[in-house]
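Fold it.
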Amino acid sequence: MEEEGLIRAHPTLNKLIKIVKGERAYCIKDEGDEESTLLLTCNAGEEKDQEAWFLDSGASNHMTGKKNLFVTLDESVKSSISFGDNTKVAIKGKGDILIQTKNGAHQFISQVKENGNMLIVCLYIDDLIFTRNSPLMFEEFKKEMAEEFDMTDIELMSYYLGIEVKQSDDGIFISQKAYAVKILKEFNMENCQLVSTPVERRTKLSRYDDCEKVNPTLYRKLVGNLRYLTCTMLDILYGVGLISQYMEALTTIHMKAAKRILHYVKGTMDYGLFYSASNNFRLVGYSDSDWGGDIDDRKSTTGFLFFIGEAAFTWSLKNQPIMTLSTCEAEYIAAASCVYHAIWL
C-alpha cells in the first residue's frame, strides 16, 4: 500500500502538495490547478520521516515515480538528484508519463526532465527584486507578497545597491555613475585629471619596495570601493586585482596606482553594461594570461570573460596557483580555467 505524507511547497505556490511513494523516490503532484500540475522529486526513503521537509527549487525539474506511470521510458538516461540534507536519489530514466486527474481524465506530460517556469527572487534587508519567465507566476507572487507584508510596488527597477538600471524595449543598461561620483568625492578626486588607461603600461608592484608607508585603513577602504565598482566596469578589473594584492605591505607606490584608477573612473563613469533584448544566446568566452606578472613570487595571472550574445555576464581575474616556465604554459593554464568555467556554465 502506498504511503502518503505532506510537504509544503515554495511560498509562491501557497499550496500543500501530496507525496505518493514511488520505487526510488517520491512523485510530487500539485493538488491545485490541474492545468499547471507541478512535478518534482522529493527524497524520502524507507527510513525517512513522512513529515520531513525538503526543498527542491525546481531548477533540476526531475521527476521519478512508479515505473508503470511511464508511457515511454529511456532507461539509458542515468543520473541523480542531490538534496539539502546531502542525500541523493537515483534517476532511473527519462520519458513521458500519464497522470490521472481527480475527475478521472488522463493528463499526458511529455519530457519530464525539461526545464519549466522559473521565478528568481533577490532579497537584501527590506528591498526585494524579482523576475520570471512566466507572467502568471510573476503576478501571483506579487499578490501573495502584498497580502502577507506591507509592501510598495515601484514597478521596473531603476536603482539597487548602488547600481543604476535603465530599461527599454532595446534592452537593459546597468552602470554605477552615482557610486563612482561618491567615491571620487570621498577621496577628494572629483576634479582630478583624466587618463586613458586604469593602469600604466608595464606597471610592476612589489611588497618589498622602500617607499614611504601609507595609511592602511584608507588604502583598504579605497580598494574595497573600487572592487564593488567592477560590478559594471570590467575595464578596471585588472588594476583593482593588482592593487588588492598589497593590503598588508603598502606604500605610496601602491596608493599612487590605486588613485590612477580613480583618474580613469573620472572619465568613464558613464560606462556600463548593456544587455540587449535579442534572441542571440550564443555563449562565447575569452581568456588571457600575464606571464610572471607578480615580481615577488613570479606567478602569472589568469583572466577570462564570457558573453551571452553581446552581453558580458561572468568574468574572473586571479593569480595562477603554480609558477610556469613560459608564456605558452601560462596561456594553457588560463585557457583550462576558462574551459572549466564554460563546462560549469
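Residues 175-344 form one domain.
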